[in-house]
Write a structure and sequence with these properties.
The complex is a heterodimer of chains A (about 260) and B (about 260). Chain A is mainly alpha-helical and about 260 residues long. Chain A is built from 13 helices and no strands. The relative contact order of chain A is 0.11. With about 260 residues, chain B is an all-alpha fold. Classes of the chains: A mainly alpha (about 260), B mainly alpha (about 260).
Chain lengths: ~260, ~260
């Protein structure tokens, strides 16, 4: 059996067409899941109070969209998220490029950076709340803290992976130190920098939601907390999917930029 | 002499850097430029750690968190590896799994904690479940990618020397995927720790994340930083352990181009 499969891996083209159609198989799987999810509570296989049903999620979504508070919550969360990410890029990229370029500085600051990299930055959330209060400040800080570390780490890696021969070639044509940095090292490390930004974005999305769930007065995370504690799973799922789609779209967009930069 | 200096220089500079950070921190507080109510100070944090160690509070919180982490991450490793290997072997299964993995990966799963609490209670069970769900996806996805990208030359070579399917899996496919799998485990460790900490912020009465949150509500910054130091140490220890594991299982790879 396995032997057969290995032969297929070796000769991919021999597989049946329908199995190779990724979109078809995935769509069928999701549809089957939705049907099962819709019928299971109706047949009393599971308790619908805690799982809701797709039809109720759709109804809840329409109600939320008509309600009018959605725009306020989304724009607040988006505002906090954007500030955190922008600050993280403005601070993280220069630090990363500097640490990548100067070895002694890197040896000096690498251990604390790596220690923070290995730590869940969301552990800082209660500290930020003590420092900055329950408003926008603590959310921006959490997004910033979550995003800045991967941006620094990947920017360092970007500079270090720049092809040395490019630098040597520029030097042998008498390029100044500043030109070597601005015209060779910086552009060549951009793809790695964008990887850092992409990781930062996915951490930032989780960060802003967790921070709003932890303590806040409005925002998407606040709504999630409200409907979660009330066991309104249908409303809860709408907001969860909203966040998922946003995170997926944002990271896909950055990935597209990344691929363009590599060319 | 020069050589040993060069090798030990990064380590020495690393120690120096922590010493400098703690010294500046302590100094700023002592001179009075920074209010210790907000930032605490290293000497007070060290004292708090010593006192928590004596009272057993530190060990208790640490054991609760490490147990939740070990169970969540352990289950994620088993499930993630199995899912990844099966999906890497059978393409149809990969296509079926794909949309669900995508949703699990990008959804803020902590949002579902009230539902977990109903089933698993207000404590370790829920924390383990969230830690598991957060860390299982990167492990499964990386294992799958590793299996998919095996050099077919390796497989054909093994087959032409009469390898059994069993051998192909254990002696070719899995060893060849080690770097991708380890990268997945590395992401998984980070997300499992994150899962434990954030779940403890919401649903727990013990553990390091709970301790940070609890002391935060009492505005006891020194105790918050003490627990944070333990979390940082735990994160670093896990990452180091994984590097050792990687060296052990990837030792057959002698050079580029394999």
């Amino acid at each position: 059996m396995l032997n057969q499969k290995m032969t297929r891996i070796a000769a991919l083209e021999s597989r049946p067409r329908i199995v190779q159609n990724r979109a078809f198989v995935s769509t069928v799987a999701v549809l089957l899941f939705l049907i099962l999810w819709e019928t299971a509570p109706r047949m009393h296989w599971i308790d619908g109070t805690y799982t809701s049903e797709p039809s109720r999620v759709v109804m809840a979504s329409l109600e939320i969209v008509r309600g009018g508070d959605l725009l306020r919550d989304v724009s607040l969360s988006l505002w906090e998220f954007t500030w955190g990410i922008v600050l993280a890029v403005l601070v993280g990229v220069p630090i990363g490029l500097l640490l990548g370029t100067f070895q002694t500085l890197r040896h000096l600051l690498d251990p604390p950076v790596m220690a923070l990299y290995a730590t869940p930055q969301l552990a800082l959330l209660p500290i930020f709340v003590v420092w900055l209060g329950i408003g926008v400040g603590s959310k921006v800080a959490v997004v910033f803290a979550g995003a800045v570390i991967p941006i620094i780490v990947n920017s360092i890696a970007g500079v270090r992976e720049v092809d040395r021969s490019l630098v040597l070639a520029a030097r042998s044509f008498c390029a100044k130190q500043r030109d070597v940095f601005m015209k060779v090292i910086f552009p060549a490390s951009l793809p790695a920098v964008t990887i850092g930004i992409r990781l930062g974005i996915s951490r930032g999305v989780l960060g802003v939601i967790v921070a709003e769930m932890y303590v806040s007065q409005s925002g998407v995370g606040n709504e999630i907390m409200k409907y979660g504690s009330a066991f309104r799973v249908d409303y809860l799922l709408f907001y969860v999917m909203l966040v998922s789609v946003f995170g997926f779209t944002a990271t896909t967009a950055v990935r597209a930029i990344e691929e363009r930069l590599r060319k | 002499m020069t050589r040993t200096f060069r090798q030990s220089a990064p380590v020495a500079l690393g120690i120096v850097s922590f010493v400098i950070i703690f010294a500046i921190w302590e100094l700023l507080v002592r001179v009075g430029w920074v209010n210790p109510f907000f930032t605490s100070q290293p000497s007070a944090i060290a004292a708090a750690l010593g006192q928590q160690m004596q009272s057993g509070e530190l060990l208790r919180n640490f054991l609760v968190s490490i147990r939740e982490f070990a169970m969540g991450f352990g289950a994620a490793v088993v499930v993630g590896l199995v899912l990844g290997v099966v999906a890497g072997w059978y393409r149809t299964f990969e296509y079926i799994l794909d949309p669900f993995l995508w949703f699990l990966y990008s959804a803020p799963l902590i949002a579902f904690y009230p539902i977990f609490v109903i089933r698993l209670g207000l404590g370790s069970g829920t924390v383990i479940a969230i830690s598991f769900l957060l860390s299982v996806t990167p492990i499964a996805v990386n294992t799958l990618t590793g299996m998919k990208n095996i050099n077919t030359g390796l497989i054909l070579a093994a087959k032409s020397f009469g390898a059994h399917p069993h051998d192909l899996l254990w002696k070719v496919a899995l060893p060849a995927s080690v770097p991708m799998i380890v990268a997945g485990l590395r992401l998984g460790i980070g997300r499992a720790l994150t899962g434990v900490v954030i779940a403890e912020l919401f649903v727990s009465s013990a553990g390091l994340g709970y301790s940070i949150s609890y002391n935060g509500q009492l505005l006891k910054t020194t105790n918050m930083f003490a627990s944070l130091v333990v979390i940082v140490a735990l994160g670093v220890a896990c990452t180091q352990a994984l590097s050792a594991l990687e060296a052990r299982f990837d030792s057959w790879r002698t050079g580029p181009g394999v």
